[in-house]
Design goal:
The structure is a single chain. This protein is mostly helical. It has helices at 2-17, 27-36, 44-48, 68-80, 86-92, 97-108, 122-133, 145-148, 167-178, 189-194, 199-210. Helix 2 crosses helix 6 and helix 9 (167-178) packs antiparallel against helix 11 (199-210).
């Protein structure tokens, strides 16, 4: 019953957010923008790597292989200020909507990188696996997979893949939800869940998710 309730919440979020139709995107042009930028800021590859693999040390996320619409909407959110990140905002603030569409198409079509070898202990990974796949219902924490799909490999633009993402980025973003710095979820689903996670649980689930293979497009 609890899992069913969590799934219903996720479905409700989909209805609230809606899925508008995307215009035609040019992934070849997106590659050019990703590698060279538009002349007003650093190219995407400077932070996210030549293949969209990100940088764990800098908490720059993996973006290769993520849902195209999710990537597009995220860049729009940085432009509008719905999501706040000074580095992202200043480097894409001059991009037109078509530029964002092209970039999203390019990165969505790249293969997801292999996960990094886990540095966490077996005990910590086991706790992370439990949170990610089973949740902690005593603390009203549903499993990540109830929204982010089987093996947390993503469902659509509203629930992106989180398997294979850098642990540093996962932790950073969950903390942003906890502190009210991320407010782009109209149903406040992630904010509510994030605030129930202990530091121990957050470290564990971030380490576990980072060790898992991402979905291949």
């Amino acid at each position: 019953m609890k899992l069913t309730t969590a799934i219903l919440i996720c479905v409700t979020a989909l209805v609230v957010l809606g899925i508008p139709t995307m215009a035609v995107a040019d992934s070849d042009r997106g590659k050019q923008l990703a590698m060279q930028g538009d002349g007003s800021g650093a190219p995407c590859s400077a932070c996210h790597g030549p293949n969209g693999e990100g940088n764990a040390a800098g908490a720059f996320p993996v973006i290769a292989g993520l849902n195209e619409r999710y990537l597009f909407r995220t860049m729009q959110a940085y432009q509008s200020g719905t999501r706040v990140n000074p580095v992202m905002s200043m480097n894409i603030d001059n991009f037109a909507e078509q530029d964002l569409l092209d970039l999203a198409a390019y990165y969505a079509n790249l293969p997801s990188p292999a996960p990094a070898a886990p540095s966490a202990s077996a005990e910590q990974l086991a706790l992370g696996e439990k949170i990610a796949l089973q949740g902690d219902w005593d603390a009203y924490i549903p499993p990540c997979a109830s929204c982010h799909g089987p093996n947390n490999q993503g469902v659509n633009e509203n629930f992106p893949a989180i398997a294979g993402q850098h642990a540093s980025y996962i932790k950073q973003q969950v903390q942003a939800w906890q502190q009210g710095q991320r407010t782009s979820d109209p149903v406040q689903l992630m904010e509510a869940i994030a605030k129930r996670l202990s530091d121990e649980q957050l470290d564990a689930v971030a380490a576990y998710l980072a060790s898992q293979p991402a979905a291949q497009q």
